[in-house]
Design brief:
Radius of gyration: 16 Å
Number of helices: 12
Distance between the termini: 10 Å
Shape: globular
Structural class: mainly alpha
Oligomer: single chain
Number of strands: 0
Amino acid sequence: MTDLWTSTTEQAWRTALDRYQAVVSAQGIARLSELDQWYRDELPGTLAGRPGPHVTASELVRLTEWKMARGVWRAPNLVLVRSNPPEMVVETSAAALALVPHPTTPISALVALKGVGPATASAVLSAAAPETYPFFDELVAAQVPGLGVVAWTPAYYRRYAEALRGRAAQLGAAWTPTMVERALWSNAGGKKGARS
């Protein structure tokens, strides 16, 4: 893994981002490529196409499966996510997405759902508003100087997101915090790379 964070050249970041799909595939995790493609390519358009953006219960489950396949699988959390009443998922996510672009209030609103912590909440927000909210990932946070040990809290997420928004702004108008997050995750080699 290179120290991508200290690189000021847009090309180094672009190279890492361009490797993202290959790194996803290299993880060797069943369904990760399929879930990742759905999360990156389909879900954002689905959310944007709704008059009142929200996620459905089935989308929240699928998004959670994506998050766990890309990171750490926590079966009890998935059981909790599945236990949320469908109407509560729609109402809670619609209320949270109406709070965009506040840096933390939408995260706090989404964590009211069972099994949803700041990372899962950030996945919802990143799909809906990638220009503001990066996905909260431990491998990414570890590459950002000054953040300290990862704490799965809205306050830590706020600092993490601010750092990634700042880097996206430095890289240029074509970059979003979500792109910065994916470049850093790719740079780490995903969780498979982090183990080696």
